[in-house]
Structure formats: structure tokens, C-alpha cells
Amino acid sequence: MFEAVISGASDPDIEGVDVVRRAALAVSATDMLEADGYVLGSPANLGYISGALKHAFDSTYYQILDSTRGRPFGLYLHGNEGTEGAEKAVDSITTGLGWAKAAEYVAVAGKPSKDDLEKCWELGATVAAGLMG
């Protein structure tokens, strides 16, 4: 799913957008401040976002709060069961940050299908295309 998102965001028709990858445990407030938009990805463990993504927000939230309002974001989740709790957590955090949902979330239960991977590609492309210009 990650590779499909990156492929979409890096499509040659999308110009002027640099795609930067950061692991959730390594992302810093500076990384978040330097980005113009975000695609978040997480397993939905026990119906919640990963501890790594939670840590990324916990360690950067107040440092980026006033400076990232209005920035677009997308989300993809993978779980073996429901992802509703993870979606709700991201909604809560991103609402607090004032981020703008750029595309419908991609939530996959079980092994990702070809259609799921296409939706991931579209998610990456949609967020990146929105940053062109």
C-alpha cells in the first residue's frame, strides 16, 4: 500500500512536488513544518492507529499546531478487522490541527486487492496533484 501511494504521488504528470518519506518514529516537527501536505499511513491495530503514528503526533502536535492549518492530508489504513477507531483518531487529531482532508480515506481489511492498491495510488496522486503550482 505504501509503495502504491508513493507511486501515485510521484507520477511524472505531477510537477513541482517533492515526495519525502518519513517513518512515523523518525518524523520531526521540522519535517512536518517543511511539508506542504501529508499522506499518513498506519496499520489499524486493535481498532486504533499505530503507536508509531500516535507518537509522531504526540511529539510534534503543539510545535506544528499554528503553522500547518489548512494543509491537505490523506490517510490509508490496513487492518484485519475494523478501522473505524483509527479513522476517528485521525479525524480528531487532524481536526485539532486544522488540516484539510484532500481525499477519501483508503481503509483495507485483510490482504489488499488490486482495487485497494489502485485506490492507494489515487490517494497519493490526489494529495500531490493538489500541491502543484
From TrEMBL:
<dbReference type="InterPro" id="IPR029039">
    <property type="entry name" value="Flavoprotein-like_sf"/>
</dbReference>
<dbReference type="Pfam" id="PF03358">
    <property type="entry name" value="FMN_red"/>
</dbReference>
<feature type="domain" description="NADPH-dependent FMN reductase-like">
    <location>
        <begin position="29"/>
        <end position="109"/>
    </location>
</feature>
<dbReference type="InterPro" id="IPR005025">
    <property type="entry name" value="FMN_Rdtase-like_dom"/>
</dbReference>
<protein>
    <submittedName>
        <fullName>Flavodoxin family protein</fullName>
    </submittedName>
</protein>
